[in-house]
Amino acid sequence: MNIETARHVAARIWGDQNYSHIEMNGDLAEEIAKALMQNANYKRKVVTLNNGELTVTKIFSFCYAHKLPEYKGKCSNVHGHNSQLEVEIGANCPTQYNYPGMLIDFNELKAIVNEKIIDKLDHKFLNEDVDYFKVINPTVENMVIWIVNELEEVFGEALVRIRLYETPTSHSEWVRFE
Fold first, then answer.
1. Of 26, 49, 97, 107, which is most buried, counting CB atoms within 10 Å of its CB?
2. Is residue 75 flagged as an active site residue?
3. At a CB cut-off of 8 Å and minimum separation 6, what does 5 contact?
4. Are residues 56 and 103 in contact, defined by beta-carbon separation less than 8 angstroms?
5. DSSP reduced 3-state for 169
6. CATH classification of 56-175 is 3.30.479.10, yes or no?
């Protein structure tokens, strides 16, 4: 593969039609060529940068009420929260949700999280309105577990982090380990 062909392939991967400005040397062209030969789905993968992984995060807000019946304190009474949910997606997102140059389309991510999570929790009394929390104490930690289980059905290993703020200064977080 020559450098001009590698530039063209890189432009297609990154979704850039005007590829003449892409800087590339022979080694990079060779690396791209090898990767393409080994994996026809190369454009759906994300290359690691400086030993890190590229991710995207979408933030959602919703309100809910709950009570913690076994808790000794004010939270044993019905009370509400204005929560913030962060959903982070990494590489290997199912291909129907990503496009060249994107891990996932933010509009797709928003639609999925709204359907699977927000619509089920927003302005709900968790202890009575959500089946899972009729039997599981609706702590922020258990809410994170429920959210992870719901979203892993869609995103699999591409789901890398969930952070749920119960208050502006208190949150629970789940992070995928490699």
1. 97
2. yes
3. 29
4. yes
5. coil
6. yes
Annotate 50-62 with b (16+ C-beta within 10 A) or e (fewer): eeeeeebebebeb
- 63 assigned to active site: no
Q: Name the residue ranges covered by the structural domains of the chain.
A: 3-43, 56-175
**Above 80 in pLDDT, residue 151?**
yes
Query: How many helices and strands (H and E) does the chain possess?
Result: 7, 5
Catalytic one of 123, 128, 153, 157: 123
Of 81, 88, 93, 166, which one is the catalytic site residue? Answer: 166
- The residue from 75, 108, 141, 152 that is catalytic is 75
SS3 of residue 69 by DSSP: coil
Express each pLDDT in 69-107 by its tens digit. Answer: 989 999 999 999 999 999 999 887 876 776 777 888 999
Residue 4 known to be catalytic: no
